[in-house]
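Slide 14.
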Amino acid sequence: MQFATIQPTASRPDLPAITDEEAAALARTAVNLFRAWQLSDIEARILLGDMAQRTWARWKEGGIGRIDRDLRARMAIIMRIHKGLRYVFTEPARGYAWIRKPNSTFAGQSALDVMMRGEITDLIELRAYLDAERSA
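Slide 15: predicted structure.
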């Protein structure tokens, strides 16, 4: 019995893939954003999907290597969170501080607490919350 070869398709063909150049730009921006959010190295690495300590250290020094699809998606969602905060808060510093403030919507946890659970769905949840706040 011979099987036909199935060609892989994008899960969301309506969304273009993130190029290598765009991924590198996302990585550099994530490093700067995490500084603005005043994240520890451990917090930053967890948000980036449990990134290795050596890889994170290299990123902070400007050495961005290969970035897989999942990490590209995480960074894109984090940038959408940042964008949502910029819409909700006209003063950037307030948005940066909000990340650590307890929030009744999250049962008294902060947005960072939600993101630190480590799952990509937690990032998506926060992004959806900010999108809804922006629309309200």
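Speaker note: Helices lie at 20-36, 41-47, 53-60, 69-88, 92-98, 111-115, 120-135.
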